[in-house]
């Protein structure tokens, strides 16, 4: 369906070539100061035509707020917003009247619905993500103001070009063929943890690839241009960190925090993979090295020394930085001729026309941030509702001490000992 979330509910609408795309957001707390500019910043980071590395489709993607706020303050009622589609060129897609694009959604949409949008990717187009990005920007404003939560995503690879090892999330070590080697030193490096703690959107946007390491970013640019010049495309990964999330978010057992994140991320077009924390690398490292030992933080809560868990244990946030990585495939629409078959089964050659992204990851960054914000917001509202309901009960004095968390003072005291 087109709705995401339980208490912060976002419904997106729109096809690539219809009059407008947008969203209705239900569950935004009242009293949040909000302007179109708060939303526009992220929409402009997502929009096409930002550089020679993205599709030249020229859309300004200016948001129009329709309801849910007055005098720049949210009313707690549904927020409706829209963005007009202005630069459609349906004729670019005339071949795709005959051919389903290989590895795009044309064939499956037609099989499913029995009818499809007459041009463009219809609902499968990345234009649909405008509603998500706008809804995410609103959630982010609340999360930042109420909890100091920050979300930053960045491009971590394009094709085979990766950030240097020390700045990368843990990854499978294909080059290490020694099956008896349990060494895990190359994994969650101090440099990577530091990057997660400090990286800003300004740093990410410094380079059109949205890779925060200038030398790697330059190589990525060349790789994307090589794909573009060959009328081809290339994939990549986006890594995201969520900072300052309180411990206790996540709804076991089916809506565990990482399950909700995976759901959110794998609903973004062109995604093929999702890893949280140590991800697949965690399968190679023995428990003795993979476990995150506990330590008392200066504020009297428990933290962890390492963070292989990616800030989530038992499907519940533990207060550490949450980090995860998403794999995006090489976009399907390429103008290089491909042997394939028409809808009617006739073999033929498709060289797709139209304006397309040679690589989606630079534009996917704000979409990943938005989906992360939707997950945090939704889970936070659910946990707040639970905590508020529990706080209305008289204190329980009969439980054995092992059933409740010791007070912060106790933790700080035992840390001194
Ligand atoms: C920001 C962004 C831009 C995209 N641009 C294109 C594009 O120009 N051409 C294309 O074929 N696919 C593009 N895609 C991917 C398609 O929307 C997607 O591959 C298609 O809907 C099929 O869905 P699937 O790949 O998730 O199976 C883009 C995806 C994102 C996130």
TrEMBL record:
Please name the source species.
Coprinopsis cinerea (strain Okayama-7 / 130 / ATCC MYA-4618 / FGSC 9003) (Inky cap fungus)
Q: Which GO terms describe its biological process?
A: amino acid biosynthetic process; aromatic amino acid family biosynthetic process; chorismate biosynthetic process
The record's section on HAMAP family has: Chorismate_synth
Among the Pfam families in the record, one is: Chorismate_synt
Entry EC number(s): 4.2.3.5
User: What's the protein here called?
Assistant: Chorismate synthase
Q: Please verify whether the record's keywords include Isomerase.
A: no
Q: Please give the residue ranges the record annotates as the region Disordered.
A: 165-188
Instruction: Output the InterPro entries linked to this UniProt entry.
Output: Chorismate_synth (IPR000453), Chorismate_synth_AroC_sf (IPR035904), Chorismate_synthase_CS (IPR020541)
Is Amino-acid biosynthesis one of the keywords UniProt gives this record? yes
